[in-house]
Each structure stands twice: as C-alpha cells, then as structure tokens.
Amino acid sequence: DKGNHRHFMQKEIYEQPVVVAQTLSSYLRTLEAKVALPDMEFDLGSVERVAIVACGTASYVGAIGKYWLEQMARVPVEVDVASEFRYREPVLGPNTLGLVISQSGETADTLAALRHMKSEGVTTAGIINVPTSSMAREVDLLLPTHAGPEIGVASTKAFTCQLAVMAALAANIARAKGKLSDADEAVLVKHLAEVPAAMNAALAHDAEIEGMAHTIAGARDVLYLGRGPDYPLALEGALKLKEISYIHAEGYAAGEMKHGPIALIDESVPVIVIAPSGPLFDKTVSNMQEVQARGGKVVLISDSEGLAQAGEGALATIEMPKVHPLIAPLVYAVPVQLLAYHVAVVKGTDVDQPRNLAKSVTVE
Ligand code: F6R
C-alpha cells in the first residue's frame, strides 16, 4: 500500500527516518552510550581483514564501510562486486571476516560469493534485510536491517539501513580491537542517534528538489562528485538517476575529474557536488570550481557553512543540516534519492518498475 504516496519509491524514501531509527535501536544502547551487536560465536577482536562482497547499491554501502572500518578499526578492507569476486581468486587469509550486504538476501552472485568464502573456511557476516532469505540462513553472523519490505526496484531505505548497521559493525570491531575509547564510542553513538532527525530535516527540502528536477530532466549526462565516504554516495546517486530516469550518469571521486572526465564538461552537463563541510570540503570545492570555470552547471549539496563559503555561482544549492562527517552519507542520501525520483517523475518513467530491471537478481 502506497498510502498518500504516488510511488513506492517515494514512500520508502519518506520511511527512512523511522526505519533507520528502528534499525539503530537494535544496534545502539543510547543510555549506556554503547554500540552492540547480536551475540556471536567468534571474537571480533581477532579480525585482521574484512572482505566485503555485494552488488549494486549494496556494494556502495561496502565502499563507504571501507572508509569507516579502516578509519575506526584500522583493519584493511577489500570491497568487491560479487560478480567479480570468485573469479579473481581472492586471497582470503586467516582472520578475514567475509561480509555480504544484500537487501533481498537472494542475489545470485552475492550468494555464490558467500558460499565461496565459507568453502574457504572464512567466518562470514551478512547485513541483510529479508530475514528468511538464503543468505540470512547461511551466514555465521546475521546483522539484520529493519527496513521492512522494499517494493520499489530502486533501493532507498534498505541502503540507509545497511549504512546504519555498517557503522555499528565498524564501531564494534574497533572496540574489540582496542581502537575505540569509551569517549569516542559515546560521541559516535550520539551522532548515529541524530541521524533520523537529520533525515527529517533533509526531507523538508523535497519541494525545492522537485523544482530543480525539470532542469536535470533535460540533460543527456549528469555527473556526481564526492570525496571520502561521500565518493561512493556519488556513485549511488549516479546509479539511482540512471536506473529510474534513464539519463546517463556517472559518479567520480572529485579529485579524479582533472584526470579525464572534466573533458565532458560544458553548459549542458549538470554536476551534482556532494560536499558536507569538514576536512575534505576545501579540496572538493576547488574541484567544483574547475567544473564551473568550464561552464559546468553545479548543484551543490552542503550545509549552511559550506553553502555560505561556496554556494555562490552554483545553479542550485540544497542545504543539509550540519552533521558529523561520519553520518553525512546517511543524511546526504536523502536529497540524492529525491533528485533521482523527481527527475524520473518529470520524465514519466515507470519509477517503481524501471525497464530491464528486477527487484531480486537470481541469475549470475
Ligand atoms: C539499485 C538496486 C540494485 C541492488 C542490487 C543488489 O537501486 O536496487 O543495484 O542494490 O541488485 O540487490 P540486493 O541488495 O538484494 O542483493
């Protein structure tokens, strides 16, 4: 049931503050300022490497998780798309934690990768939304997301719930390895607990984003730029736009622009810049200015501080609440999803059932 919403995708975007709060509530003990995972039979402190395998949107959760795990827990992380994983003969040493991420828990390539890891003796965990799925049954440690059924083919609420669990997992591994002090854990719990309210603040910009959808809908190509954990979010933004609006879109690490893609820039190419204020902001802004100097039309998504510093000269700006860099990908996901959604509505595509796509991909 879509309720008051025109599409399931819109409904699912709007459900995010509630389902992310639901998911977080089973991974945070806010009163004690602690993160917590379900009971498990192995010691997270012994994890020396993490191998993350997933497809599509779920693989971008893995890519964001790599930044978090490496920063917080100081363990090396590899991220593979599942269709490539088995065939590159990955080196899976002892003390590797194999992590699969999947909404459906049935994606054929991810399931095959999970079975491959198990056959190599690797301990596995899964961030999975459908609790009765094959992957949920087969992983050693199930880390459920509580997004509820996701009907729209384009993943939205599953993505942000997966990120919430990923942050909790990274913090738990960090703590088990002695890399996270009680004080830092308390700060992290506080920031994570702020996510639902920050998502509500982001949703309040819906009408504005709808207003800019007409301009974007006329484009042939759109680029998304981000740095650090917001780089995989740029990839996710581009995927979302291409799958439901059929506009060609690419995500790039902002600093990579000058190594090739900047050749594409002219007045007809909108560039969506995801840049919360923080340590990486100035660098991203200088990449954005390189785009503007070539006539590129920028949509800057940042907070009040960032927009005051760099919003001048942008085609449009979207103001996010000021949040800690750690949680920015969860909050900035909202405008990125809304933009794709409204562009698709302007274009009149079948938003919930885009052509050529299936909700669950059970062939390799
Ligand atoms: C994109 C999308 C797909 C899925 C991918 C993995 O919006 O929905 O890229 O993320 O097919 O699906 P799951 O998470 O079910 O393994």
From TrEMBL:
Keyword Glycoprotein applies: no
GO molecular function per UniProt: glutamine-fructose-6-phosphate transaminase (isomerizing) activity
Substrates-to-products reaction catalysed: D-fructose 6-phosphate + L-glutamine = D-glucosamine 6-phosphate + L-glutamate
Domain SIS: 40-179, 212-354
Domain of life: Bacteria
Subcellular location(s) per record: Cytoplasm
Enzyme superclass (EC): transferase
Active site: 359 (for fru-6p isomerization activity)
Protein EC: 2.6.1.16
Keywords for this protein: Aminotransferase, Cytoplasm, Glutamine amidotransferase, Repeat, Transferase
Function per UniProt: Catalyzes the first step in hexosamine metabolism, converting fructose-6P into glucosamine-6P using glutamine as a nitrogen source.
Subunit structure, as described in the record: Homodimer.
Name the UniProt record assigns to this protein: Glutamine--fructose-6-phosphate aminotransferase [isomerizing]
Part of the intact protein present: 244 to 607 of 607
